[in-house]
Amino acid sequence: MALVSGFTFIAPAAASAEETNGASYAYAEFLSGDVLGTDLGNVAGLGQVVASNNGNQARQVHRDPLTVEVLGATVLNQPGGLQLPLLDVVDAGAISQYAEADKNGVSFASTGAIQDDGAIGVGNTSSGRAGDLTVDLDSLLSNEFASVLTDLKLDLDAVSARADGNMTSASGDYTLADATLSFSSPAISKLTSKVTKALDGVNGQLISLGGDNGALGNSIDGILDPVLGVVGSSADVKVIVDADLQKAVSTLLDGKYGNGAVSFNLETGAVVVDLEALLGGELNNLAPNTELLTDAVVNQILNGITETVADLADDIVERVELSLRDAHVEVSAKLNLLTAQKSTQKTVCRDIQVPIIGDILDGEVLGGGSSNGGLVGGLLGGLTGGLTEGVTQGVTQGIIGYTTDTVCELVGSVLPDLRSTVDVSIVGNVDDLIDGTAISAKANISLLGGTVTTGLNVDTLIGSLGKSLNSSLFSNDGVVTSLVKSLNTGLVNPAVTGLLGDSGVATVLHDLVSIKVNVQEQWTSTGAVKGDMFSETAVRVAVGSGDIATLNVARAVVGPNVQTVVDPGCTENCGPTDPEDPNCTENCGPVTDPCVGICLLDLPTYALDGQLAYTGAGVATLIALIVALLAAGAYFARQGYLRTHPKSEL
Q: What is the pTM of this model?
């Protein structure tokens, strides 16, 4: 839709379609447009320059060196503590405006980075930000999009536009040294914390894998436990995988990425797009009404960022995998156990001498007789007792001999405890262990005091450990795969959704922001002045399809006799006599009408004799108006967004 209210043509007081005998008109303004239908070109503080000629006057020339920096000093205090400087919306440097109208129907207008004679002078203007402009688009967007996109700004360098007209045709040209679009997206911020969170998960898995009940510990237990079954115990196994993963990826996390055309910081979420570099190094000589933020360009910007984030995730995974493969591994398995033996009993027999007890005869011959001891004496005494006088007789008990006997008894025996020890130590890096080699390895095992032979080979332990390392770290269910999933969840997917999703940055840029360059339009005026006008606008920025705001940067207008629009490089006197003439351009035909339809415009006649036109509206009035309309603009932006992105009632 053509923005009729965006044009404020200042026309000569007396000229009509029937009176085109040399009448000419030129108009230039660096900054114009509208906010919700309110024409910013009518503001005195912004200013315009006009030259008009009724066909009978000398050449009319007007210059207006304009600066809008003074606008930045004005701050409005709104209810609720809101402060909005106009500079937050528009910040422009030193610029100039030029208008010239001659009696032969020739007119010329230019604005922006121009020289004193109105010629476009990129690189030849005075020092300073000549023709530079910063437009804060974020101020024109609703808070509805704050979670998606913030700090949206457009920086234009050395902008200028010119328009040339004569009795039948007109042409326009523009220059734009650079155009930079910048914004911030929370979806691609806080890179370090996102990656650190993913790496913390990996470190936790490594600790778990190395524990006594972890996969790596079990790979050692799986070999030792059958051997230690004879003692009914298990070794204390520890596996440490030492990898500094944060250090491995640290050089990737500086946050700054890009290829020159699109640069972005994954810590802050800031994105800077050099539109000139993105479009092949040329912002000038583009076709009329070229849209810079086409779907293809927006997708190129955002796809480039998401691809970089995805590539970064891949690089992180690669660095982590390399670090894990080179990680230092220490394995220890310890056991020190005493096993008590069962007590035993046995029968012990021995021979002993047993004395024989019997009676012994003992006698004494009384009165000096002899005494016969022993058995004989006893027997004789017994036989002759009473027969022999003077003899005393007796019988006693005593050992009369010995015999041998065998005695047996149960005797218990206590055996000493048997000691069992395990001392396993394996040191190496992951890749070597997977290949079956280690820096050092030992497996000293003694069971039940050496009475049980194990036959265990340390290579068996290394082989089991290596197999477990490979599976635990690098299989489809391993640590590296887990890292990939974590990075996708915490880093890549939020970037893709936040930039390219239905409610992402792409939607805002596609639907709400337009940046056109070399905007050429033809207008048919009515009212006091009848005739066709031609305008050249270097850059036009529209927010919300123009419903919220439209800013024309560097616009020049000529007329009112335009019948055709031609290429500005065309030389009408180009003939066959000198085809090598550098000023000769064969393409002298009319340019296809760039305007959608013919737009009718009532031209106000504020200026007489080419004097500057002021509406009388003060800068303070404009600022108050803009502030009031910005709030309404945010509402319309939100409504437009909701129309294209309805929410479910569930």
A: 0.69
